[in-house]
Every structure is written in C-alpha cells, then in structure tokens.
C-alpha cells in the first residue's frame, strides 16, 4: 500500500535530483528554493526508510536503493503522464476497411489495388482476410467484412448480397514447366495417368472442374489432392507430375515467371466471373467506395 504521506512533489524532486546530480539544479528546474528541495528529499528518505543518494559535497548520486526507486518511479510517472494525455486529448479512431479476398484475387488484383489505395488514403487501415468463399460471405453478411473480392456467390445464396462483376477468369490445368503433357496435341484422356489436384468440393470452381472432366471422358475423377492454396499447390506441382486445376489468377505470377505452365485446353467455359460482393442492405462507407474504385481500376484489362 502506498504510504499516505507520499506526494507528487516527492517523486518530481527525486527524479530531477537523480537526473541532474545536484539539489540546486533540481530546485532551479522545479522553480522552488534549494532549502525546499533539500527538505523534500529528506522527507522522502524518511518516508521510504532509507537513504536514496550518496552525498559528496554538493553533488548527489544514486545509491543502490535509489537506482531501484528511480526505475519504478520513472516508469510510474511516464504512465501517469500518458494517462493524462490520453484523457485530455484522446486519439481519433483510425478508419478501417475490412476486405475478404479469395485466393484467385489475392496474388495480383487486390495487392495492386491495395498499394494504389494506400497511396491515396494512407490514413485508412486496410484489413485483408483470405479464406474460403463460404466463410468470407458469412462474415460479410454478419457485418464483419465490408466487401468480398472473388467469385460470384452461388445461386440461391445471394439474397442479401449484390455482386459486381469485374472480369471473367479461366480455370486452368497447371503443371511444372517440363511436364510430359506440355504439348499442343496432348490427349485429355492422358489425365487418367497423372495424379490430379482439384478444388475442394466446397469451392466455387469445384463443380465446373468436375463437370469438365466428365465432359472429356473422366467420369469419376479421384484426385490425389484437394486444394486451392498457392503455397501448397505450387510446391507439389513443381516437385511432381501432378496436374492442378485452379483459377488462373492464383498462379499468374508463377506462370509468367516460368515456374509453372498451363496445359492448353479448348474449353473456354471452364471458369467464371470475378468481382466484388457487398451487402445489399448497407451503403458502403466513403473509404469502402474508394477501395472499390481502386479495385476496378486495377481490374481493367484483366478479361481473360
């Protein structure tokens, strides 16, 4: 329990004396007389029950007890000053835009838009969350996200949402750069001889991929992996003969760098629209509208 006779003047005088090493200098800094400063230090040492300074002529230096006392009193005074500033001049809350981003938009489109947006609105915190479509749309409905960038919501699930299409994106079979199937005349039936990595059944592109495989004679595909994660898919494909069906935007950087390659196919309907999903019941904030505009600018020319 704090001693009832301790006062702020004791702490201030102690800290100034410790800092300056002189009672006269501390008195001048505190705008009090030297006798008053000397009495304050004597009173403090009587209250705590021990000397806090070693005295040599007119100079004072902290002893072991004084150094311990200084470390704690200094921290306490700093906390008190911070508390006072926060009460008298509370910081203004920083505006935040919360965006859910599917993997197909997280590698190219949204990073470009985010950098441009930050350049125009550096005061806004852009909180980006990636995850599966069902989770992001659920968080959007609950008001925990302001928008979702990715595939169009499934039919029948968009009653409280509205979708704004940005571009059409292909789903493509991706392989390592020296894969045996990398030739224009490869036969679709050859896919049965290689392990497949398909989108999980809960993913938006899952049904269209499986329907395409059925249309080319692979009626009951048995994938070795189900995945839409770039980090996992890239490494598995690079180190094996796996054929990965994935949205082109997810692997665009790797394809451009030559790390991965796209197997040529003739069905351009294997894909779907990428866009922005919002709650139909709310008007987006000014910061959210500005982010939407940045995403739309970044998406120009991405029709594939």
From TrEMBL:
User: What is the protein name stated in its UniProt record?
Assistant: LysR family transcriptional regulator
Q: Which InterPro entries match?
A: LysR_HTH_N, LysR_subst-bd, WH-like_DNA-bd_sf, WH_DNA-bd_sf
Output the Gene3D superfamilies linked to this UniProt entry.
Periplasmic binding protein-like II, Winged helix-like DNA-binding domain superfamily/Winged helix DNA-binding domain
Q: Where are the transmembrane segments?
A: none
Please provide, alphabetically and separated by semicolons, the GO molecular function terms listed in this UniProt record: DNA binding; DNA-binding transcription factor activity
Q: Which UniProt keywords apply?
A: DNA-binding, Transcription, Transcription regulation
Taken from the record, one Pfam family name reads HTH_1
Record organism: Paenirhodobacter ferrireducens
| PANTHER family found in the cross-reference section | LYSR FAMILY TRANSCRIPTIONAL REGULATOR, TRANSCRIPTIONAL DUAL REGULATOR HCAR-RELATED
* Homology family: Belongs to the LysR transcriptional regulatory family.
- GO cellular component labels: protein-DNA complex
**Per its UniProt record, what PROSITE patterns does this chain match?**
HTH_LYSR (PS50931)
Q: Which SUPFAM superfamilies match?
A: Periplasmic binding protein-like II, Winged helix' DNA-binding domain
Residue span(s) of domain HTH lysR-type: 6-63
